[in-house]
Each structure stands twice: as structure tokens, then as C-alpha cells.
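Researcher: Re-running this chain for the archive, since the previous output was lost when a drive failed. Same request as before.
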Amino acid sequence: MSARRRRLGVTALAVVAPVLAWLAADPLLGHRLRITDAEQTLDIGALPVALVALLASLAGWGALAALERFGVRRARAVWTGAAVAVLALSFLPLAGDGMDTGTRAALALMHLAVAAVLIPGLRTRHAIPAPPASSAARGAPDGDSADLGS
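Model: Regenerated C-alpha cells:
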């Protein structure tokens, strides 16, 4: 299986995972996921959950592909560190007011579900070797460089 096809599958799973968490919380357990502020209430539905997960997945895939494309040494380790940092930052809005504990827990579970699929799933096929000193000096492209879609 090609890296592109595998990563496409991982992206699809990363969209399905939080939707399953939403299904468990909202329709199955009957807990409406809502965020309120002084003026309005936002009901969190399956479509927004899927869209946000898709955007996060595509951003993660694109970031990893860019790191690989530009020959960053240890691209996987750099990307994993960035992904964990983004996950940690994604919990900051959950500390705010406007949602009950059930909504907060469901949203945290959705964030963790996306990360649990993406972080191990978007892995490189192999380490990308540094370009040879002679071709780096001439600016010649490396014949085995990863393509953006891999």
C-alpha cells in the first residue's frame, strides 16, 4: 500500500473517530453537547465535528509532508512533538466557561480520538536521508525525496 493511500485511510479514520464519540455522547447517552455564552447557544453536531477533524487531519498530513519534502532530519520526531503540542493547546478552550462537565469530557474525548489516530497513523515510510554533500552544494535535488502526497 502506498504512503498516500495509507495516509488517506488514516485521515478518514481520524474523521470517523470523533464522530463515534459524538454518537456515544449525544444520541446514545442523550447528553446534548452545547456551548453557551451570554447571548447564544451552540449545539455541537456530527457535521461540525467531522469537518473540524478533517481540517485538523489535513493540516497534520500537510505539515508532515512538508517536513519530509524539505528533508528535515527526523521529520517524524519533529512532527510528533508538534502534534502533541497542538493536542495540548486544543484543551485550553475546554477550561473556559459555557459548557457542562459532560460536554467538556465529550469534547476532550473527541480531541484525544483524533490524536490517537493521527499521531501513530501519519508516520513516515522510512527516514529521509540527508542529501549528499556534493549535491547539496550544487543545489541538485535528491532523487529519492519524498513527494508532498506521500
